[in-house]
Amino acid sequence: MKTMQKLNKFKTYALIMATVVTLSSCSNDDNNDAPVNEEELITTVTAIYTPLGGGTAITLQYKDLDGEGANAPVITASGNFEKNKTYNGVLTFKNELTDPAEDITLEIIEEAVDHQVFYRTTGTINAFTYGTAASNLDANGLPVGLQSVFTTTDAATGTLTVTLRHQPNKTASNVASGDITNAAGSTDAEVSFPISVQ
Asked: Which pTM does this prediction carry?
């Protein structure tokens, strides 16, 4: 009787193993799923602020040329903002690991309804606002945020954090005015620049 039970257990085990081997060796060559639209790699974020009425433009730049490698990104500012001036800023995103470099900004413009840039400041830095040009709006008249305005007053120091969101809820409370709190969506890029007004 024990021999018969052992034989039945062995047959059951052998059947299970044969099924597992058969299932794991099958391949699905008929997979018709659409290819996943992978997130673009952004290695370089550049913001150029040009003062109204003349003066020196300020370039803020973030570069991480080894992607997700061990090297820290290089963050630079070409100078200090001047007091009591208004600066118009233009933001660009690139992938410089390709040759030639890929301008991700063009894709953001093409998919404007699915993207929005947010500007947040710390310290004593005044707020950055959106530029009012039509090119800074998506097809629904809501901001993309690639253009911004920075009006300085007194001397100040702090950081500017630039966040690119993918598929934010642009109609949520205060999002269209640049408040990221209710934006949701996913973050494509986020960089912080130390800045100074003198």
From this structure: 0.80
- Length of the chain in residues, anyone? 198
Structure tokens at 117: 């840039």
Q: How many helices (H) and strands (E) does the chain have?
A: 2, 10
The DSSP secondary structure of 131-189, one letter per residue, reads: ---GGGB-TTS-B--SEEEEE--S-EEEEEEEEEEES--TTSTTGGGT--TTT-SEEEE
Decide if pLDDT at 25 tops 90.
Answer: no
Give yes or no for residue 29 having a pLDDT over 50.
no
DSSP secondary-structure letter at 193?
E
- Residue 158's region, left for phi above 0, alpha for psi from -120 to 50, else beta, is left
How many Å apart are CA 113 and CA 137, to the nearest integer? 9
pLDDT of 72-81, one tens digit each?
Answer: 999 999 999 9
